[in-house]
Specification:
There is one protein chain. The chain is mainly beta. Helix content is 11%, strand content 58%. It contains 2 helices and 14 strands; from the N terminus they run H-E-E-E-E-E-E-E-E-E-E-E-E-E-E-H. The strands form 2 sheets. Strands 4-5-6-1-8-13-12 form a 7-stranded antiparallel β-sheet, with helices on one face. Strands 3-2-7-14-9-10-11 form a 7-stranded antiparallel β-sheet, with no helix packed on it. A hairpin with an 8-residue loop joins strand 9 and strand 10. The relative contact order is 0.20.
Length: 295
């Protein structure tokens, strides 16, 4: 009973920022340049529990004006920065969990928000969260064994003002091989979904990539966005499942990672901060794809 209550608490924690972001988007008090990107992933119905698992949550923020620069990065759940004068503020949050006892369940969330007011400001927020699981698939001789799970991924993107940008990228990679070390495994399957809102004069981008053993039941970008709008809101929902059969002993590595970024800027004199790369570079950083190749 205690475990179930704790799980509900975490789910409510993940859901709360989405509601809060939507409220901010329609608030009449929102007057400055603003960008917000939130992403949430729920992973459940694993037919096997992982033999090992890890979670990660990282944040990074930068707030810059002509008279003040404050930046902060953090390996924990929250980081924020602000500057005086011409105002710039950045807030980043990330959290991740993996319950490995049957039935296994994983979830994580990231939220990046940046505010700017007056002129000559830069606000940048970035959040990353990931879960990793290692599985041994060991079918009986002359038979097969299945590895499967379900996923729900959703993100909310908000921009307001002429120079604001919000991005969310979510990816799932399945590595496998005869060696339990992910460095010696190959890429079996990939799922990725991304969304990007840009303010006036720039295109908004939504994309999804699904390899053969993923089934995508729902991919739905919705909201109020377009190149002629100064205030935009987009919700992106992707739901589906994964299933693959194996006829020989195989070590699998499951990696789900997400990144959100929010940028506001009001000066061509202030450079946009360099962002981290997507899934493959992230995998290299943690040592998972230095030898990856698609099977």
């Amino acid at each position: 009973m205690k475990k179930e209550l704790r799980l509900v608490k975490h789910i409510l924690f993940f859901a709360t920022p989405l509601v809060a972001s939507s409220v901010i988007a329609v608030s009449p008090t929102l007057a400055a340049t603003f960008a917000s990107a939130e992403a949430n992933v729920f992973l459940g119905n694993f037919n096997k529990s992982p033999d090992l698992s890890t979670v990660s949550a990282k944040t990074n923020t930068i707030a810059m004006t002509p008279v003040n620069v404050i930046s902060h990065s953090d390996e924990g759940e929250h980081a924020s920065s602000a500057s005086a004068g011409d105002s710039a503020t950045a807030i980043a949050e990330a959290d991740s969990l993996f319950f490995t006892n049957p039935p296994a369940f994983a979830a994580n969330t990231t939220l990046s928000e940046a505010f700017g007011e007056a002129e000559n400001f830069l606000g940048f927020a970035q959040s990353e969260a990931s879960v990793t699981g290692g599985f041994l698939i060991n079918p009986a001789p002359n038979s097969t064994e299945t590895f499967s799970f379900d996923f729900t991924a959703f993100s909310t993107l908000i921009t307001s003002g002429e120079e604001s940008e919000a991005k969310a990228d979510i990816s799932i990679v399945i590595l496998g091989g005869t060696d339990p070390n992910p460095v010696n495994q190959t890429v079996f399957d990939i799922f990725s979904v991304s969304g990007e809102l840009n303010t006036l004069g720039q295109d908004d981008v939504f994309s999804v990539e699904v390899s053969d053993n993923f089934t995508l039941d729902t991919f739905l970008p919705s909201g109020d966005f377009g190149v002629d709008l100064e205030e935009e809101l987009a919700d992106v929902l992707a739901m589906g499942s994964y299933q693959r059969q194996f006829d020989r002993p195989t070590y699998l590595t499951f990696i789900e990672t997400k990144e959100t970024k929010a940028t506001v800027q009001d000066s061509t004199q202030v450079p946009e901060p360099i962002s981290t790369l997507g899934l493959l570079v992230f995998s290299c950083l943690v040592g998972f794809s230095s030898r990856c190749k698609v099977s």
